[in-house]
């Protein structure tokens, strides 16, 4: 629950392996490399150090140089500071670090709005270069009035950039609050604010820093040996245990004796702290087999349960029913997964009709698709009425604009979430083209990756960007975000033309044969997924297979390094914390097919 570590650099002349052995022997489970004055290490040493730390189960982070800020308004300096931040994050990737810590910048007489605009502008420049690295950018809270970066400021920036996280320097918060962090309740109030302003996966675990300090009316003056100031770590640990917050706690003390005293107090507090007793009669939604961020509790509601804090009258039934027998995962685990992933998933469902893929008895039981919203749906759950030529009348599809709606759908046993490719307001014009790469009998993952790479190559030659995700089964889906201006026929014709080109170039690995028996040993490129009314498992959808795999966004460069069954509702959280939403470009559209159609000879 709490990984304690220290900040610094290995002493000159001490072998990295020997140094990390000493870190582990001291009981430290984290280490933050203080690259605060520059870059003392090359990428190859970072890579070796990261491998040694991983072998000892030590979490790594890097503190970027102090000059690597986001609020420089001098164009030449801004290039320098952005380059430093980008380079630190690349070193972090080589090292396997979870987070790179950086200061946001200084006020210098500028307003919070001006500073926010500068930070956003600088992040927009580096985002395409760093968002796929798998290293979160942790913006450190401010400790003086002359610096920019309150938790509120960081929350606004993080809402625009999925790879940004808050890093709480408790000494800074203590200084800015004027000796405010002296009780368990004071720490709990900051934790409550974090949980209100950031999604659970972004702050659980929370990367934070700790030391004692002296401060004045304008904030921190300096760090002091632990015990000489008024900040104590015991109440923080107790607050974290009470609230169930996971933390990586880095001691930034300037002397070994303070490191040791802070660590000893952490251990003592952990031994004596107890979680908050649950509200009488409530229980966790999940089974406890998996650690989820943003845990939901249930209160009795007739012969069912109601999520504590739900906005709408929502009733959960049979949360302990086993839904994935091979793994012991329950319906409550499935519901808790969707509650925790909702901040990433809901934007991809916004305004879309959903087809429910229902498994009332779990992944091993019978299933069926349901389009029409059930008659017992609550009045607060909105529907999308879409015309059905087959029925001669509209079908009212369910939608999921919020967490409560999503949980109501999943409570029906909807393991998978299948949204339309169009928005309900314009049901004939898809916002994405999909290449569904499905390995036939005798084909393997390596072949799927090969075909996905060919799709990427053709898209690049056509001036288009595609984004891969695991299907959650054995295949890969490549999504091409589009402006909603093309009808289904044009989108399908485009995908078919690209597919035919790939099959012609690589007939041994790719096929578009409609006869299933003729596909053996090859990867089927299914262009007919791009048809009105057809749906495909959403990004972040769980699939009804052993292990509860999740349809997960990937970085192109990692396709041949990762296996889809490794990405499950239990294992996805560290990845989400590192990458944020790799599918966020799908929310922006901004691509058209005219030039590609001309290049492909499509009329």
The largest pleated sheet is described as: 8 strands, parallel, barrel
Quaternary structure type: single chain
Q: Can you tell me the CATH class of the largest domain? A: Alpha Beta
Q: What share of residues are in beta strands?
A: 15-25%
**What is the radius of gyration computed over CA atoms, rounded to a whole number of angstroms?**
26 Å
What is the CATH topology classification name of the largest domain? TIM Barrel
Count of helices? 16
CATH H-level superfamily of the largest domain: Divalent-metal-dependent TIM barrel enzymes
Describe the structure.
The protein has 16 helices and 27 strands. It has 603 residues and is α/β, with parallel strands linked by helices. It has three domains: 2-272, TIM Barrel; 283-419, DNA primase, PRIM domain (Alpha-Beta Complex); 432-600, Alpha-Beta Complex (DNA primase, PRIM domain). It has an eight-stranded parallel barrel, surrounded by seven helices. Strands 24-25-23-27-26 form a five-stranded mixed sheet, with helices on one face. Helix 3 crosses helix 4, helix 7 crosses helix 9 and helix 9 runs parallel beside helix 10 (256-272). The longest helix is centred in the first third of the chain and has 21 residues, at 75-95. The protein starts with a strand and ends with a helix.
């Amino acid at each position: 629950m709490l990984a304690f570590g220290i900040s610094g650099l290995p002493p000159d002349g001490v072998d990295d392996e020997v140094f990390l052995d000493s870190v582990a022997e001291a009981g430290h489970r984290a280490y933050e490399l203080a690259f605060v004055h520059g870059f003392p290490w090359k990428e190859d040493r970072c890579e070796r150090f990261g491998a040694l730390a991983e072998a000892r189960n030590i979490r790594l982070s890097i503190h970027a140089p102090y000059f690597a800020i986001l609020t420089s308004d001098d164009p030449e300096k801004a290039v320098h500071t952005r380059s430093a931040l980008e380079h630190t994050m690349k070193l972090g990737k080589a090292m396997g670090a979870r987070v790179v810590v950086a200061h946001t910048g200084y006020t210098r007489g500028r307003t919070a709005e001006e500073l926010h605009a500068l930070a956003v502008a600088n992040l927009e420049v580096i985002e395409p270069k760093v968002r796929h690295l798998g290293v979160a950018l942790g913006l450190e809270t401010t400790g003086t009035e002359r610096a920019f970066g309150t938790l509120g400021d960081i929350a606004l920036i993080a809402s625009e950039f999925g790879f940004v996280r808050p890093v709480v320097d408790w000494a800074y918060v203590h200084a800015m609050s004027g000796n405010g962090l002296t009780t368990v309740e004071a720490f709990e109030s900051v934790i409550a604010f974090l949980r209100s302003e950031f999604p659970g996966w972004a702050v659980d675990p929370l990367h934070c820093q700790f030391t004692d300090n002296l401060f004045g009316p304008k904030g921190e003056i300096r760090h002091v040996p632990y015990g000489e100031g008024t900040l104590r770590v015991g109440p923080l640990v107790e607050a974290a245990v009470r609230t169930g917050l996971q933390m990586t706690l880095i001691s930034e003390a300037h002397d070994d004796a303070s490191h040791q005293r802070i660590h000893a107090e952490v251990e003592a507090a952990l031994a004596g702290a107890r979680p908050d007793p649950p509200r009488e009669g409530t229980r966790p939604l999940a089974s406890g087999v998996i650690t989820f961020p943003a845990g939901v509790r249930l209160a009795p509601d007739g012969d069912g349960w109601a999520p504590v804090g739900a906005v709408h009258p929502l009733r959960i039934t049979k949360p302990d029913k086993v839904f994935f027998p091979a793994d012991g995962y329950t319906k409550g685990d499935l519901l808790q997964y969707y509650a925790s992933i909702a901040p990433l998933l809901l934007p991809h469902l916004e305004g879309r009709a959903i087809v429910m893929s229902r498994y009332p008895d779990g992944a091993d039981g019978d299933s069926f698709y349901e389009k029409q919203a059930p008659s017992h749906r609550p009045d607060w759950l909105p529907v999308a009425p879409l015309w059905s030529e087959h029925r001669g009348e509209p079908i009212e599809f369910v939608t999921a604009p919020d967490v409560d709606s999503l949980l109501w759908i999943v409570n029906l046993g909807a393991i998978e979430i299948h949204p339309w490719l169009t928005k309900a307001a314009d049901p004939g014009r898809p916002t994405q083209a999909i290449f569904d790469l499905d390995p036939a009998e005798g084909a393997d993952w390596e072949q799927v990756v090969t075909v996905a790479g060919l799709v990427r190559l053709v898209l690049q030659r056509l001036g288009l960007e595609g984004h891969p995700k695991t299907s959650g089964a054995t295949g890969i889906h490549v999504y091409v975000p589009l402006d909603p201006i093309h009808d289904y026929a044009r989108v399908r014709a485009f995908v078919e033309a690209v597919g035919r080109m790939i099959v012609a170039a690589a007939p041994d690995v790719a096929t578009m044969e409609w006869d299933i028996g003729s596909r053996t040993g090859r990867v089927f490129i299914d262009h007919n997924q791009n048809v009105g009314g057809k749906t495909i498992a959403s990004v972040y959808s769980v699939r009804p297979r052993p292990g509860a795999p999740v349809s997960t966004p990937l970085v192109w460069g990692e396709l041949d390094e990762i296996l889809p069954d490794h990405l499950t509702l239990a294992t996805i959280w560290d990845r989400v914390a590192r990458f944020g939403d790799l599918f966020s470009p799908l929310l922006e559209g901004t691509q058209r097919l005219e030039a590609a159609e001309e290049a492909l000879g499509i009329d």
